[in-house]
Amino acid sequence: MTEALVAYLEALARMDHDAMMAAQAPGVVVIRENGERRVPSAADALRQRNDREFEKRIGTLWTYRVIEEREGRTLVELRESNGFYDLMGVGSRWARNWYAVAGGRIQAIEVEGSGYERGDYSSAVRAFQQWAIHDAECGKLPVIEDGGLSFTAASATPMMQCASRYSGIRR
Predict the structure, then answer these.
(1) What is the pLDDT of residue 147?
(2) Residue 51, CA distances (Å) to 16, 35, 54, 59, 155 in order
(3) Residues spanned by CATH 3.10.450.50 within the chain?
Protein backbone atom coordinates (compact mmCIF):
# COMPACT_ATOMS: atom_id res chain seq x y z
CA MET A 1 0.00 0.00 0.00
CA THR A 2 1.38 3.42 -0.92
CA GLU A 3 2.28 6.18 1.50
CA ALA A 4 -0.44 8.42 0.02
CA LEU A 5 -3.13 5.82 0.64
CA VAL A 6 -1.91 5.13 4.17
CA ALA A 7 -1.92 8.90 4.85
CA TYR A 8 -5.46 9.20 3.48
CA LEU A 9 -6.85 6.25 5.46
CA GLU A 10 -5.17 7.33 8.68
CA ALA A 11 -6.52 10.87 8.15
CA LEU A 12 -10.00 9.42 7.65
CA ALA A 13 -9.65 7.45 10.89
CA ARG A 14 -8.76 10.76 12.63
CA MET A 15 -11.47 12.58 10.64
CA ASP A 16 -8.84 15.08 9.47
CA HIS A 17 -10.36 16.55 6.33
CA ASP A 18 -7.33 18.67 5.38
CA ALA A 19 -4.96 15.70 5.55
CA MET A 20 -7.40 13.60 3.50
CA MET A 21 -7.52 16.25 0.80
CA ALA A 22 -3.72 16.60 0.82
CA ALA A 23 -3.42 12.90 -0.05
CA GLN A 24 -5.67 13.34 -3.10
CA ALA A 25 -4.58 14.76 -6.42
CA PRO A 26 -6.33 17.91 -7.61
CA GLY A 27 -9.13 16.66 -9.83
CA VAL A 28 -9.32 13.23 -8.18
CA VAL A 29 -12.00 11.20 -9.97
CA VAL A 30 -14.69 9.46 -7.94
CA ILE A 31 -16.46 6.58 -9.67
CA ARG A 32 -19.73 5.64 -8.04
CA GLU A 33 -21.28 2.16 -7.94
CA ASN A 34 -23.50 3.07 -10.90
CA GLY A 35 -20.44 3.97 -12.99
CA GLU A 36 -20.97 7.73 -12.75
CA ARG A 37 -17.61 9.51 -12.87
CA ARG A 38 -17.21 12.89 -11.27
CA VAL A 39 -14.66 15.27 -9.87
CA PRO A 40 -15.83 16.53 -6.47
CA SER A 41 -16.76 20.22 -6.39
CA ALA A 42 -15.97 22.84 -3.78
CA ALA A 43 -19.48 22.23 -2.36
CA ASP A 44 -18.67 18.51 -2.07
CA ALA A 45 -15.45 19.34 -0.21
CA LEU A 46 -17.35 21.60 2.21
CA ARG A 47 -19.95 18.86 2.82
CA GLN A 48 -17.16 16.35 3.47
CA ARG A 49 -15.45 18.75 5.89
CA ASN A 50 -18.76 19.25 7.73
CA ASP A 51 -19.34 15.48 7.78
CA ARG A 52 -15.92 14.86 9.39
CA GLU A 53 -16.58 17.57 12.02
CA PHE A 54 -20.02 16.09 12.77
CA GLU A 55 -18.50 12.60 13.01
CA LYS A 56 -15.81 13.77 15.44
CA ARG A 57 -18.39 15.22 17.78
CA ILE A 58 -20.60 12.13 17.85
CA GLY A 59 -17.71 9.71 18.47
CA THR A 60 -17.54 8.05 15.07
CA LEU A 61 -15.06 5.23 14.65
CA TRP A 62 -13.59 4.68 11.17
CA THR A 63 -11.68 1.45 10.51
CA TYR A 64 -10.25 -0.04 7.35
CA ARG A 65 -8.61 -3.16 6.03
CA VAL A 66 -6.84 -3.84 2.77
CA ILE A 67 -8.56 -6.57 0.78
CA GLU A 68 -6.45 -6.74 -2.37
CA GLU A 69 -3.71 -4.99 -4.30
CA ARG A 70 -3.69 -5.39 -8.07
CA GLU A 71 -2.35 -3.47 -11.07
CA GLY A 72 -1.52 -0.29 -9.16
CA ARG A 73 -4.85 -0.24 -7.35
CA THR A 74 -5.77 -1.15 -3.78
CA LEU A 75 -9.16 -2.45 -2.63
CA VAL A 76 -9.99 -1.26 0.89
CA GLU A 77 -12.97 -2.08 3.05
CA LEU A 78 -14.01 0.87 5.22
CA ARG A 79 -16.32 0.66 8.22
CA GLU A 80 -17.96 3.63 9.93
CA SER A 81 -19.66 3.14 13.28
CA ASN A 82 -21.47 5.77 15.32
CA GLY A 83 -24.42 6.36 17.59
CA PHE A 84 -26.41 8.20 14.92
CA TYR A 85 -26.49 5.15 12.67
CA ASP A 86 -27.43 3.03 15.68
CA LEU A 87 -30.29 5.39 16.55
CA MET A 88 -31.49 5.20 12.95
CA GLY A 89 -31.52 1.41 13.34
CA VAL A 90 -29.13 0.68 10.47
CA GLY A 91 -25.90 -0.22 12.29
CA SER A 92 -22.44 0.39 10.85
CA ARG A 93 -21.85 1.65 7.33
CA TRP A 94 -19.42 -0.23 5.12
CA ALA A 95 -17.85 0.53 1.77
CA ARG A 96 -15.41 -1.27 -0.52
CA ASN A 97 -13.37 1.21 -2.55
CA TRP A 98 -10.59 0.80 -5.10
CA TYR A 99 -7.92 3.48 -4.79
CA ALA A 100 -5.55 4.31 -7.66
CA VAL A 101 -2.40 6.17 -6.65
CA ALA A 102 0.15 7.78 -8.97
CA GLY A 103 2.64 10.57 -8.48
CA GLY A 104 2.36 10.21 -4.71
CA ARG A 105 -1.37 11.08 -4.55
CA ILE A 106 -4.71 9.36 -4.95
CA GLN A 107 -5.88 9.87 -8.52
CA ALA A 108 -9.14 7.89 -8.44
CA ILE A 109 -11.54 6.35 -5.94
CA GLU A 110 -13.91 3.73 -7.32
CA VAL A 111 -16.76 2.55 -5.11
CA GLU A 112 -17.22 -1.20 -5.59
CA GLY A 113 -20.02 -1.49 -3.04
CA SER A 114 -21.48 0.09 0.08
CA GLY A 115 -24.29 -0.38 2.54
CA TYR A 116 -25.37 -0.66 6.15
CA GLU A 117 -25.42 -3.67 8.43
CA ARG A 118 -29.09 -3.65 9.30
CA GLY A 119 -31.17 -1.67 6.92
CA ASP A 120 -31.79 1.07 4.43
CA TYR A 121 -30.22 4.32 5.65
CA SER A 122 -31.96 6.49 3.06
CA SER A 123 -35.44 5.40 4.20
CA ALA A 124 -34.51 5.59 7.88
CA VAL A 125 -33.00 9.07 7.69
CA ARG A 126 -35.85 10.34 5.49
CA ALA A 127 -38.38 9.24 8.12
CA PHE A 128 -36.30 10.84 10.88
CA GLN A 129 -35.97 14.07 8.89
CA GLN A 130 -39.74 14.32 8.41
CA TRP A 131 -40.28 13.71 12.10
CA ALA A 132 -37.59 16.25 13.11
CA ILE A 133 -39.03 18.96 10.83
CA HIS A 134 -42.44 18.64 12.51
CA ASP A 135 -41.31 17.95 16.08
CA ALA A 136 -41.82 21.00 18.27
CA GLU A 137 -38.51 20.62 20.14
CA CYS A 138 -36.26 19.48 17.29
CA GLY A 139 -37.72 22.05 14.94
CA LYS A 140 -36.19 24.76 17.14
CA LEU A 141 -32.70 23.23 17.11
CA PRO A 142 -30.03 23.64 14.40
CA VAL A 143 -30.62 20.20 12.88
CA ILE A 144 -32.58 21.27 9.78
CA GLU A 145 -31.17 23.57 7.10
CA ASP A 146 -32.78 24.31 3.74
CA GLY A 147 -35.39 21.60 4.35
CA GLY A 148 -32.85 18.85 5.07
CA LEU A 149 -30.78 17.50 7.92
CA SER A 150 -27.66 19.52 8.67
CA PHE A 151 -24.58 17.45 9.52
CA THR A 152 -22.12 19.96 10.98
CA ALA A 153 -20.12 20.45 14.15
CA ALA A 154 -22.84 22.79 15.48
CA SER A 155 -25.65 20.33 14.77
CA ALA A 156 -23.97 17.23 16.25
CA THR A 157 -25.18 17.45 19.85
CA PRO A 158 -28.73 18.60 19.04
CA MET A 159 -28.95 16.04 16.22
CA MET A 160 -28.07 13.25 18.62
CA GLN A 161 -30.63 14.56 21.14
CA CYS A 162 -33.34 14.55 18.48
CA ALA A 163 -32.29 11.15 17.12
CA SER A 164 -32.39 9.72 20.63
CA ARG A 165 -35.91 11.07 21.20
CA TYR A 166 -37.00 9.78 17.79
CA SER A 167 -35.53 6.34 18.47
CA GLY A 168 -37.33 6.15 21.83
CA ILE A 169 -40.66 7.11 20.25
CA ARG A 170 -40.22 4.63 17.38
CA ARG A 171 -39.73 1.66 19.69
Answers:
(1) 86
(2) 11, 24, 5, 12, 11
(3) 3-116
Please give the pLDDT value at position 164. 96
- For residue 5, is pLDDT > 70? yes
Q: Which CATH class is domain 3-116?
A: alpha beta
Structural contact between residues 100 and 106, judged by C-beta atoms closer than 8 angstroms: yes
Residue 60 sits at φ, ψ, to 5 deg, of: -65, 145
52 class by beta-carbon count within 10 Å (0-12 exposed, 13-18 middle, 19+ buried)? buried
Q: Average of pLDDT values for 67-89?
A: 96
pLDDT by residue (tens digit) across 7-59?
A: 999 999 999 999 999 999 999 999 999 999 999 999 999 999 999 999 999 99
Helix/strand/coil (H, E, C) string of the chain?
CCHHHHHHHHHHHHCCHHHHHHCEEEEEEEECCCCCEECCCHHHHHHHHHHHHHHHHCCCEEEEEEEEEECCEEEEEEEEECHHHHHHCCCCEEEEEEEEEECCEEEEEEEEEEEECCCCHHHHHHHHHHHHHHCCCHHHCCCEECCEECCCCCCHHHHHHHHHHHHHHHC
Average pLDDT, the chain: 94
